[in-house]
Design goal:
The protein is mostly helical. It has 34 helices and no strands. Helix 5 crosses helix 27 and helix 16 runs antiparallel to helix 20. The protein is globular and about 100 Å long.
Length: about 800
């Protein structure tokens, strides 16, 4: 390997949000750390590390129970439709009562109990826009101070309150009643709250000791001398809150917490908002900042009882949210597919097929990034892998660096938007809309942006062929003399199989024999394979396939006549037939044959595409919930990994750990932001801000543009997670009060959610702080960062064009949700 090349195995690209993941092994401490602090740090680190390893394994039973439910329910439906209902019942098939609740509780335990492991691994994000510019001593001093003042009190209070919440469920034998047909006991899952809080509070001790070590011995001595007084004050504070009768001044402190505030509650909320922005930009981990401020300002503006009630209820609702259950499963699906090397094989196959087309590498990058975006929303992984796969080839083939860099970074950001986007899963509960409708609403915008990228790159190459020249002869695959015929026949064959499959799903062949659709599909695949291997069979199968398409398109119009789409599709079939006609003149195998590149194409493209299509299609068609589709997708990714010979127990366990880390990052912040948002709303500040903005007598369209501009600017220093979970809920009441394009409230929220997603995707392409540039620079070091920025800015303008179209024409977002829901 050359000196300037990057080894993909040495890259940590599980998620771009985890910027400070620790490199040292769990339990490893610096040799020069204060001696009495080292064993404590190592012991707590190892405790949380082992706890995280055990908790990560819960993803396996989570996948198993959800996959069992999906298979059992759908097999029962299939057998019943075929007349075998009694047999299906005897097999115990059918919908279950217990899987829905079991899966929700397992998913909740995943992130809550592993919160301490997440802190040990350094995955709780911070907005380090200012923090990273400070010296190590300053960073350590700020960290130690805020851990002592913010983190430890809030986590101890969280643990005590969560313990009381768990004990209430345990002592009363409470069961899940509100949204459960099974009614299981609540206390086993609720136990994760105090256990997770305790492990998280314990992990704060090593974090403080690490800050002590980082700040230097002189400053450390000052903090250590103050520790006894801090411990006494902390003990008094906790006892004064939870046992005021046994400490001096406890009753006074209780009355103080009950006292009415001297200023209005909305004003307290504004101070709370300002404090949140200040502490976040100072650089303290966002989740802990939100929990601490929600406690303090909740007690100040309301009372301790209401504050603790909001904390426990919001944490519990996050743990049992069935939409958010899809987060760990989709993350695992993407990580397993990435670890199995499916993206590299997919890129290689498409690159070979497009080898004789100008700008072929641009096409390959955008197609692969679009497909991979539907497998995982991990921007860092997409940009990095695309850079590794395409960067060197683009440079060797004389591609324009700016256009190449822009194409890779823009394609990599599509995972933010294209379903099943993790961002949209998290955004659904925030906007109080169905994740399914957000997925449907994002489908057309995702295709629109991918098409705009493709049109822009190919248009530039058409104007200036030097930007994306045809690949050199050594990079082109061996094909027959009739390569165009190969392409036409492959397109026709794939269309035929897809159409047969769609008709089978729709029940078109079910009336002939039971499972008729499956039998017809198997027969079609067998004929297609025989035609692929034999020229004689191909010459017979071609007219049959053409007649089949023409009959289905033109012969089934009925009373409504033939649609314009049927005519267009029929014309396309006839064009493919015209292009394929030379096979009848081929006299020998040397004249026409299917080259080996098609074997690689089907091996690289079809399995992941089919997997993604099943997962995404089942969601869009309403056949499965996002969580069920995510479980099936994760299960399918594991099977693909086994099929490609990439599956090993250590690598799979590593994928589980990475998925757990990202899950903790997102879900713990969801719980913290829900608590903060509930307190903020209870203070009445969002209502006051909405009334102020609407009182300015500005156009509602201008107000919405200002909201989008604010989100765009915040997309520079902040990741999408805090923006979606903190900023959007603050702005939501204002947006809900706007009357634009005559949209009802629900449609307005779906449209606004997609606008936010596209907006944040645009911010990912906006220098100077767009992380995509640094990911790409890391794997293609010979590309100048200035050229990467210039390339990204080109596609940022394309992105803004797409955002403008979505703003001006809301039906680009709302048409598909309405059409698929029957409205």
């Amino acid at each position: 390997m050359a000196a300037d090349e990057v080894n993909p195995d040495e890259l940590e690209i599980a998620d771009e949000l985890i910027a400070e993941r620790r490199a040292e092994a769990p339990g490893e401490t610096p040799p020069d750390m204060t001696p009495w602090q080292r064993p404590i740090t190592a012991a707590i680190d190892l405790l949380n590390y082992r706890a995280g390893q055990a908790i990560a394994l819960l993803m396996v039973p989570l996948i198993v129970v959800v996959v069992y439910e999906v298979l059992s329910r759908n097999l029962f439906s299939i057998l019943s439709d075929a007349g075998f209902e009694e047999f299906a019942r005897s097999m115990g098939l059918g919908p279950t009562l217990w899987v829905y609740d079991t899966s929700r509780m397992l998913a909740g335990v995943l992130f809550m109990a592993a919160a301490g492991y997440g802190l040990m691994r350094g995955v709780h994000i911070r907005a380090d826009f200012l923090y990273r510019n400070w010296s190590d001593k300053t960073q350590a001093t700020v960290d130690a101070t805020l851990y002592l003042l913010f983190f430890m009190p809030s986590m101890i209070c969280f643990t005590v309150v969560a313990s009381e919440f768990w004990w209430l469920a345990f002592s009363r034998g409470e069961t899940m009643q509100i949204d459960s047909a099974w009614g299981p006991l609540l206390w086993p899952a609720r136990l994760a709250m105090p256990v997770g809080g305790l492990l998280l509070a314990l992990q704060g001790i090593p974090e403080i000791f690490r800050a002590f070590h980082k700040m230097g011995k002189a400053r450390e001595r000052l903090f250590v001398r103050a520790l006894p007084f801090y411990l006494i004050a902390m003990t008094w504070l906790i006892l004064a809150i939870f046992a005021p009768d046994i400490v001096p001044g406890g009753e006074w402190f209780t009355e103080l917490m009950k006292a009415s505030p001297q200023m209005s509650k909305p004003t307290i909320g504004l101070i709370m908002l300002a404090a949140m922005l200040f502490v976040i930009f100072v650089g303290f981990p966002i989740s802990f900042t939100l929990i601490f401020l929600a406690f303090v300002f909740g007690i100040w503006g309301a009372n301790f009882k209401l504050t603790t009630l909001l904390m426990t209820l919001n944490t519990n609702s996050t743990m049992l949210n069935d939409q958010l259950m899809a987060v760990p499963l989709f993350v695992l699906m993407g990580i397993v597919m990435e670890a199995a090397g499916l993206m590299e094989r997919l890129f290689a196959s498409i690159q070979m097929i497009m080898a004789r087309v100008r700008g072929s590498l641009f096409i390959a990058v955008l197609i692969v990034s679009t497909i991979f975006a539907a497998a995982t929303g991990i921007v860092g992984a997409s940009v990095t892998l695309l850079g590794i796969m395409a960067g060197a080839t683009m440079s060797r083939s004389g591609y324009d660096v700016k256009l190449a860099a822009g194409c890779i970074t823009a394609g990599g950001t599509l995972g933010i938007l294209i379903p099943p986007s993790i961002m949209l899963i998290v955004m659904g509960p925030v906007l109080e809309v169905s994740t399914l409708d957000l997925f449907r609403g994002a489908f057309v915008p995702g295709a629109l942006l991918a098409s705009l990228y493709l049109l822009y790159t190919l248009g530039r190459c058409w104007i200036n062929p030097d930007l994306g020249p045809i690949l050199s002869q050594e990079d082109q695959p061996d094909t027959s003399k009739m390569y165009g015929v190969e392409v036409a026949l492959i397109c026709l064959g794939v269309l035929t199989i897809c159409r047969i499959f769609g008709l089978g799903l729709g029940g078109s062949f079910g009336g002939v024999v039971p499972f008729g659709g499956l039998f017809v599909l198997i027969i079609t695949l067998a004929i297609a394979y025989a035609a692929y291997r034999s020229l004689a069979v191909l010459r017979i199968a071609l007219p049959v396939a053409v007649l089949f398409h023409l009959y289905m398109s033109l012969g089934t119009g009925g009373a409504d006549g033939i649609s314009i789409w049927s005519m267009v599709f029929s014309a396309f079939i006839l064009l493919l037939t015209y292009l394929a006609r030379p096979i009848y003149r081929a006299q020998a195998a040397e004249d026409f044959y299917f080259s080996d590149l098609w074997d690689e194409f089907f091996a690289g493209l079809m399995p992941p595409t089919i997997l993604i299509s099943f997962a995404l299609g089942s969601i869009l068609l309403g056949l499965a919930t996002p969580a069920e589709a995510a479980a099936m997708g994760a299960f399918g990714a594991i099977l693909l990994s086994v099929g490609y010979g990439k599956f090993t127990i250590p690598s799979f366990f590593d994928s589980l750990i990475k998925a757990l880390e990202i899950t903790v990052l997102i879900m713990f912040l969801v719980a913290a932001s829900n608590f903060f948002g509930a307190e903020f709303s209870a203070l009445g500040t969002p209502k006051m801000m909405t009334e102020m903005l609407l009182g300015l007598e500005m156009s509602p369209y201008l107000i919405l543009i200002l909201v989008m501009a604010l989100i765009f600017l915040l997309g520079w220093p902040l990741e999408w997670v805090p923006i979606v979970l903190i900023v959007v809920p603050i702005l939501l009441p204002t947006v809900q009060a706007l009357d634009v394009f005559g949209l009802n409230r629900y449609d307005m929220m779906v449209w606004f959610g997609i606008l936010v997603a596209v907006n944040l995707q645009t911010a990912w392409l906006s220098p100077p702080v767009a992380l995509s540039a640094y990911f790409l620079k890391g794997v293609v070091p010979n590309w100048d960062l200035r050229d990467i920025y210039l390339g990204m800015m080109q596609f940022m303008l394309v992105q803004l064009l797409g955002l403008t179209l979505l703003f001006l024409f809301p039906q680009l977002v709302l048409w598909l949700p309405a059409a698929m829901s029957g409205n």
